[in-house]
Amino acid sequence: MQTLLLYLLIMVVVVAAVFAVVWFAFGRGEQLPPIDDETTLTRLPAAGIAGDDVRALVFAQTVRGYKPREVDWALERLAAEIDELRTVVLTLQARDGAEPVPAEGRVVYDSTESDFPAENGRD
Fold first, then answer.
1. Of 29, 61, 62, 109, which sits 20 to 30 A from 10 (CA to CA)?
2. How many CB atoms are located within 10 Å of the residue 16 CB?
3. 120: closest CA among 76, 84, 72, 83?
4. Apex 28 CA angle, 65 and 22, nearest 5
5. Separation CA 79–CA 105 (nearest Å)
6. For residue 113, what are the contacts with CB-CB under 8 A and spacing of at least 6?
């Protein structure tokens, strides 16, 4: 029993020594400052948004969850891209003389940046 306790004590001392050596050799690491409130890590391409771009979206989390401003921005970009693609489809259909496919039960919404309420200071 004493041998087991002695091995356990030696193992604890060795682990503590290795930890101390690593701690002093590498330190605590660099402390990164928090990013500015106006900076976002959310990225979308300037044009040609694909499904993989949407799947790769990452929104910064706050106490309340995601920053609503970033989510609204990303959704507005997606809506603008969809509107642009629909316009191209309608133009090509009109050029070819094809009948446009009715969007039953759908409301076509032409959004602009002014449609969204101004930022009220909440994140």
1. 29
2. 10
3. 72
4. 135
5. 18
6. 76
